């Protein structure tokens, strides 16, 4: 079933005319990013289990899939007995999603709406949704800010006793020993074939690095610095400051911090959850590394690194993130106090 | 030295206003892609050797660096004794290049011009260039079509006896055994968590795949299907058809083709060259794989696979490539004739 929706953002007339927003959505038009997400079995199997193993949540219910991509979650919901699924997707991948749903016999169960959730009305006189399913999480959880759209959908359509899958996210931080890689990524710029390119080091330093982190590199306990409950979170909550205290677990050096998130589907019969942390199996989100400017910070078992992390959407491009991190460490040999301002673009 | 040039494409007023062209250049504004290219030692050391080991080509000469990026090649030229270097760069990375040149004492030797080569005039009354240096090569050599710009610069400014570094490129093709990866990349779409997503397989099939190819996967001799001489190549030459004949070197299966290029700096005292082929050390260009639609094609030693490869810039976005490949194989057990049309986006 096709429905373009009021105010649907159709494809721009020519490549030359597209805007930044179009390019954000168009990056999802290509199958490569969907291949990566689908092959992330931690991600996809968690959603599959949350849906297929909980037919009591889906049966005869009206579902909205926010940012449906290839439509996999919508099809899981249809399989689990949903009465109907409204699958919202801005990027051109929705054309493939329509073909896929039809090829799998879900043509009548899933209505694809190409457009911005904030701009469309639902067809069929539908004004209330029983279940929202969405895979909205970005790097550092909040990069790309798709959560704002989920919040909008919840506030506009979700029934008072409606279900959100997933419904909880927790952001963690820990300190990191990463000297060798920091040299490869940052100090590299100090001497490039004999040339001083350190001005680029300064740019690289303030750019959060998304990469797989070896759990052996983590030198403190993890601290959960932010909890988001999808039932109650507001857009204002996504601009926040949170204090943290990290207990050092071995004598080592600290080069910065690593952040990740856990996700929960707590309304499930048996709660489904997954972690993107260094200790957990690989996910396409990996972890987010924030290097300190300070050099080799000597940390000893039992010492505490305290600090504050502040997160806000960037004023110019709200899908980008400004992350400030200040920390203090009084160690056996030295004291370090530093404030860093990162830009996630 | 700063010079914005006539018609320089300055940064657009806001993120929302940028066009496709701006996004092409902006992808080069971020240091990440420059880090990758600089860390490609095959690439960068080849240029370094071609320049620094050949001062007779550079000393007291006026040089143009087309697409200078961080300015590394311009600085090599200045080091080698160039009289002056005009470094052309459209993306915002040029701001870093200016700082870098200044930090390394080349502020007076290198003039950075932010703008499209096709739109600027050179300052200082300069109308002729002695040397053009450019790292213009893209995936499959021609993806991103920066060669058009080098040709323009050559025709507008290069002295009749001027030097171009590099001056020669050769494109190769061979046949490939790649069954396992083809299944991972293509057949994957036939069954995704039980769903038929084969419409995406059809898209993936016609998209050239840039990846590292194991030399052991190559099942024929390599065939050089296109030679480009930078001194004489025209834009029209970049739309072409070329026949090939591939001699099978072992009994195996063929799943498609692999293409790569070699580059030469033949004006050097001792010619410098590098290959991006499967047999050669890693480069960031990797190789380009073109899968056949046909399944397991049984090839036997000594047999010949003949065909034609046609390349043209895409009409809608000239930086993209349309690649047609038709081939014929009369084997011991079967005959295969196929035409594929790939789109490199």
UniProtKB/TrEMBL annotation, chains A, B:
Keyword annotations: Methyltransferase, Nucleus, S-adenosyl-L-methionine, Transferase
UniProt entry tagged with the keyword Signal: no
Domain Protein arginine N-methyltransferase as annotated: residue spans: 167-331
Highest taxon of the lineage: Eukaryota
The protein's name: PRMT-1 protein
Main location: nucleus
GO CC annotation: nucleus
Stretches of the chain forming a coiled coil according to its record: none
A Pfam cross-reference name: PRMT_C
Gene Ontology molecular function: histone methyltransferase activity; protein-arginine N-methyltransferase activity
InterPro entries: Arg_MeTrfase (IPR025799), Methyltransf_25 (IPR041698), PRMT_dom (IPR055135), SAM-dependent_MTases_sf (IPR029063)
Compartmental location: Nucleus
Native organism: Thecamonas trahens ATCC 50062
GO biological process: methylation
Domain Methyltransferase: 63-162
């Amino acid at each position: 079933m096709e429905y373009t929706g009021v105010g649907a953002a159709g494809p721009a007339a020519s490549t030359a005319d597209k805007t930044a927003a179009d390019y954000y959505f168009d990056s999802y038009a290509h199958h490569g990013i969907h291949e990566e997400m689908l092959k992330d079995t931690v991600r996809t199997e968690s959603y599959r289990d949350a849906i297929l193993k909980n037919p009591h949540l889906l049966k005869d219910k009206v579902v909205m899939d926010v940012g449906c991509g290839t439509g996999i979650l919508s099809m899981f919901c249809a399989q689990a007995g949903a009465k109907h699924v409204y699958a919202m997707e801005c990027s051109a991948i929705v054309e493939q999603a329509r073909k896929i749903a039809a090829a799998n016999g879900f043509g009548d169960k899933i209505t694809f709406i190409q457009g911005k959730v904030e701009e469309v009305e639902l067809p069929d006189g539908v004004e209330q949704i029983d279940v929202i399913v969405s895979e909205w999480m970005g790097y550092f959880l909040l990069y790309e800010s798709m959560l704002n759209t989920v919040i909008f959908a919840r506030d506009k359509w979700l029934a008072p006793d409606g279900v959100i899958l997933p419904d909880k996210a927790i952001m963690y931080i820990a300190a990191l020993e990463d000297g060798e890689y920091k040299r490869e990524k940052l100090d590299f710029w100090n001497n490039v074939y004999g040339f001083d390119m350190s001005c680029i080091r300064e740019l690289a330093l303030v750019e959060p690095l998304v990469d797989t982190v070896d759990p052996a590199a983590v030198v403190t306990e993890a601290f959960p610095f932010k909890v988001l409950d999808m039932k109650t979170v507001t857009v204002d909550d996504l601009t926040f400051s949170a204090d943290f205290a990290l207990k050092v677990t071995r004598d080592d050096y600290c080069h910065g911090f690593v952040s990740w998130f856990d996700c929960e589907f707590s309304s499930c019969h048996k709660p489904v959850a997954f972690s993107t942390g260094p200790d957990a199996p690989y996910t396409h989100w990996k972890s987010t590394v924030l290097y300190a400017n300070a050099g080799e910070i000597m940390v000893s078992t039992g010492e505490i690194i305290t600090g504050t992390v502040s997160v806000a959407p960037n004023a110019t491009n709200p899908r980008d993130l400004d992350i400030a991190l200040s920390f203090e460490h009084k160690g056996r040999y030295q004291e370090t106090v530093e404030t860093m301002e990162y830009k996630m673009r």
